[in-house]
């Protein structure tokens, strides 16, 4: 059951980070683009809306790969997505009563990982799982919940069935 919750979370978070043709709308109080740093920073009441999920945070930083200049272009150009970092009061929701929250969420496009830190918790209905760090390995279809100062805790609501002994 814990793996099921984490896998479902991966499947509904992955589209935000994937480079699909599905529109993603981001609203915030401000946006700053720094070409030399290859980053876009959305600040203040950030809201990401996609047809299959939503994300809220205080800040959302998108780091891009730099593509070298070619003979046709004299300026460096931004390439593919490198990393997405959501900080401050991060919340996520998706279909089927799935949600999550943490203080810091980092998606690494190269490693295809999503790391949730600072009191991460994932929910599906009444089922929850939490720890110090939750790591989702998207390509490998696996996950880890790490303890540390805070122990891993999972709560699963199961059907009320009486156990019968043979």
Radius of gyration: 18 Å
Q: What is the number of helices?
A: 1
Biggest β-sheet description: 12 strands, antiparallel
Helix content: under 10%
Our estimate of the beta-strand percent is over 45%
According to DSSP, the number of beta strands is 12
SS-based structural class?
mainly beta
Spans where pLDDT lies below 50 across 5 or more residues: 1-19
Order of helices and strands: HEEEEEEEEEEEE
- In the CATH scheme, the class would be Mainly Beta
Question: What coarse outline follows from CA principal-axis ratios?
Answer: elongated
Query: In the residues, how many domains can be counted?
Result: 1
> What value does the average pLDDT take?
82
Give your account of this protein's structure:
Strands 1, 2, 3, 4, 5, 6, 7, 8, 9, 10, 11 and 12 form a twelve-stranded antiparallel β-sheet that branches. It is built from one helix and twelve strands. The chain is mostly beta strands and 166 residues long. It has a single domain (2-66, 78-155), classed as Lipopolysaccharide (LPS) transport protein A like domain (lipopolysaccharide transport protein A fold, Sandwich). It has one helix at 2-17; strands spanning 25-27, 30-34, 39-50, 53-67, 77-94, 98-108, 113-117, 121-124, 127-130, 133-137, 142-146, 153-155.
